[in-house]
Design brief:
Blueprint (H helix, E strand, L loop, with lengths): L1 H9 L6 E8 L4 E6 L2 H4 L6 H14 L8 E5 L3 E8 L2 E8 L4 H23 L1
Antiparallel strand pairs: 1-2, 1-5, 3-4, 4-5
Length: about 120
C-alpha cells in the first residue's frame, strides 16, 4: 500500500504538492509522501488531525449533514483534509496550485486506503 500511495502522490509533486499523509485521529502518521522531509516537518505537526476533527464536528453542527472535507488556504500553503473515519487524509500544497487537482488526489487516496479502513473497523 505504501508504494501505491507514493506512486499516486509522486505524479503531482511537479503540480505543487508538498505533503500527503494519512493519520489516525490522534495524529499518528500511517502513510506519508513528501517532496522534502526536512522542510515539511513543521507542516505535519501531530495536532493538525485533531484540529480537523474538532473543526469537522463544529461544521457538522451547522445542519448541513456530515462534513466530508475541509479546505484551508493560507498565504503560502493550502491544506485539504478529508474524513475517512477512523483515518484522516491530509494534502498540503502550494497556495497557488489547483485545488481541484488535489481534491481529486484526496478522492484517489480515499479509494486507496479503503482496505485499511475496513480492517481498522473490524
Amino acid at each position: 500500500m505504501e508504494s501505491n500511495f507514493n506512486q499516486v502522490c509522486s505524479r503531482l509533486f511537479y503540480s505543487g504538492l508538498l505533503v500527503a499523509m494519512v493519520t489516525d485521529r490522534d495524529g499518528v502518521v500511517i502513510l506519508k509522501s513528501s517532496v522534502c522531509d526536512e522542510a515539511k516537518e513543521a507542516m505535519i505537526e501531530p495536532t493538525m488531525p485533531t484540529k480537523f476533527t474538532i473543526a469537522n464536528n463544529q461544521a457538522s453542527k451547522l445542519g448541513l449533514e456530515h462534513n466530508k472535507s475541509i479546505i484551508s488556504v493560507y498565504e503560502q500553503y493550502q491544506v485539504i483534509q478529508l474524513d475517512q473515519s477512523p483515518l484522516i487524509i491530509t494534502v498540503i500544497a502550494n497556495s497557488k496550485a489547483n485545488t481541484g487537482l488535489f481534491m481529486n488526489l484526496g478522492n484517489d487516496l480515499l479509494k486507496l486506503t479503503e482496505p485499511l479502513v475496513n480492517a481498522l473497523n473490524e
